[in-house]
Amino acid sequence: MSDIPRPCLPLLALLLLLGAACQRDAGPEQLARAQASYLALVERGVPPSDPGWDAVIAEFEAVPRDSKARPEADKRIAALKQLHGTKLPRRPLSRPNEPDGGSPSLDEHGHPM
Length: 113
Known about the structure:
Elements: H1 8-21, H2 27-44, H3 52-61, H4 70-84
Helix pairs in contact: 2-3, 3-4
Protein backbone atom coordinates (compact mmCIF):
# COMPACT_ATOMS: atom_id res chain seq x y z
CA MET A 1 0.00 0.00 0.00
CA SER A 2 0.92 3.62 0.22
CA ASP A 3 3.05 5.42 2.80
CA ILE A 4 0.24 7.93 3.54
CA PRO A 5 -1.73 7.13 6.71
CA ARG A 6 -5.45 6.49 6.15
CA PRO A 7 -6.72 9.43 8.28
CA CYS A 8 -4.76 11.86 6.06
CA LEU A 9 -6.40 10.73 2.81
CA PRO A 10 -9.70 12.65 3.30
CA LEU A 11 -7.73 15.76 4.28
CA LEU A 12 -5.50 15.39 1.22
CA ALA A 13 -8.54 14.94 -1.03
CA LEU A 14 -10.16 18.04 0.47
CA LEU A 15 -7.03 20.11 -0.11
CA LEU A 16 -6.83 18.96 -3.73
CA LEU A 17 -10.48 19.89 -4.30
CA LEU A 18 -10.03 23.30 -2.71
CA GLY A 19 -6.92 23.94 -4.77
CA ALA A 20 -8.74 23.10 -7.98
CA ALA A 21 -11.74 25.25 -7.01
CA CYS A 22 -9.60 28.25 -6.11
CA GLN A 23 -7.99 28.69 -9.50
CA ARG A 24 -7.87 32.36 -10.34
CA ASP A 25 -10.24 33.58 -13.08
CA ALA A 26 -8.28 35.94 -15.32
CA GLY A 27 -11.39 36.72 -17.38
CA PRO A 28 -12.64 39.77 -15.43
CA GLU A 29 -9.22 41.42 -15.69
CA GLN A 30 -9.04 40.74 -19.43
CA LEU A 31 -12.59 42.04 -19.85
CA ALA A 32 -11.69 45.23 -17.97
CA ARG A 33 -8.66 45.80 -20.25
CA ALA A 34 -10.80 45.24 -23.34
CA GLN A 35 -13.45 47.64 -22.04
CA ALA A 36 -10.78 50.29 -21.40
CA SER A 37 -9.59 49.96 -25.00
CA TYR A 38 -13.21 50.13 -26.16
CA LEU A 39 -13.86 53.33 -24.20
CA ALA A 40 -10.66 54.93 -25.48
CA LEU A 41 -11.81 54.47 -29.09
CA VAL A 42 -15.33 55.67 -28.28
CA GLU A 43 -13.99 58.82 -26.59
CA ARG A 44 -11.80 59.55 -29.61
CA GLY A 45 -14.83 59.15 -31.89
CA VAL A 46 -13.26 56.37 -33.97
CA PRO A 47 -15.81 55.17 -36.57
CA PRO A 48 -16.92 51.50 -36.38
CA SER A 49 -15.30 50.68 -39.73
CA ASP A 50 -11.83 51.74 -38.50
CA PRO A 51 -9.25 48.91 -38.28
CA GLY A 52 -8.50 49.96 -34.69
CA TRP A 53 -11.61 48.07 -33.62
CA ASP A 54 -10.02 44.77 -34.73
CA ALA A 55 -7.62 44.96 -31.78
CA VAL A 56 -10.50 45.63 -29.38
CA ILE A 57 -12.46 42.66 -30.76
CA ALA A 58 -9.34 40.49 -30.31
CA GLU A 59 -9.06 41.64 -26.69
CA PHE A 60 -12.66 40.64 -25.99
CA GLU A 61 -12.04 37.30 -27.74
CA ALA A 62 -9.01 36.73 -25.45
CA VAL A 63 -11.31 36.42 -22.42
CA PRO A 64 -11.11 32.69 -21.54
CA ARG A 65 -14.12 30.63 -22.62
CA ASP A 66 -14.52 29.13 -19.13
CA SER A 67 -14.47 32.54 -17.41
CA LYS A 68 -17.52 34.01 -15.70
CA ALA A 69 -16.81 37.19 -17.73
CA ARG A 70 -17.10 35.42 -21.09
CA PRO A 71 -20.88 35.98 -21.59
CA GLU A 72 -20.35 39.76 -21.35
CA ALA A 73 -17.38 39.53 -23.72
CA ASP A 74 -19.49 37.54 -26.20
CA LYS A 75 -22.17 40.27 -26.14
CA ARG A 76 -19.56 42.94 -26.87
CA ILE A 77 -17.97 40.86 -29.63
CA ALA A 78 -21.33 40.36 -31.36
CA ALA A 79 -22.21 44.06 -31.14
CA LEU A 80 -18.79 45.20 -32.35
CA LYS A 81 -18.75 42.77 -35.28
CA GLN A 82 -22.20 43.93 -36.33
CA LEU A 83 -21.20 47.60 -36.19
CA HIS A 84 -17.75 46.96 -37.66
CA GLY A 85 -19.25 45.98 -41.01
CA THR A 86 -21.82 48.79 -41.01
CA LYS A 87 -21.14 52.24 -42.36
CA LEU A 88 -22.66 55.08 -40.41
CA PRO A 89 -25.23 57.17 -42.24
CA ARG A 90 -24.14 60.59 -43.39
CA ARG A 91 -24.91 63.41 -41.03
CA PRO A 92 -27.86 65.46 -42.31
CA LEU A 93 -27.10 68.95 -43.52
CA SER A 94 -30.36 70.27 -42.14
CA ARG A 95 -33.17 69.24 -39.84
CA PRO A 96 -36.80 69.40 -40.94
CA ASN A 97 -39.19 71.75 -39.15
CA GLU A 98 -36.34 73.95 -37.87
CA PRO A 99 -35.87 77.55 -38.95
CA ASP A 100 -32.96 77.78 -41.39
CA GLY A 101 -32.69 73.98 -41.25
CA GLY A 102 -31.59 74.07 -37.62
CA SER A 103 -28.41 76.02 -38.30
CA PRO A 104 -27.93 79.71 -37.66
CA SER A 105 -27.48 81.88 -40.71
CA LEU A 106 -23.86 82.77 -41.34
CA ASP A 107 -22.34 85.80 -43.03
CA GLU A 108 -19.69 85.55 -45.76
CA HIS A 109 -16.96 85.05 -43.09
CA GLY A 110 -18.76 82.13 -41.40
CA HIS A 111 -19.91 84.17 -38.38
CA PRO A 112 -23.51 83.96 -37.09
CA MET A 113 -25.70 86.87 -38.18
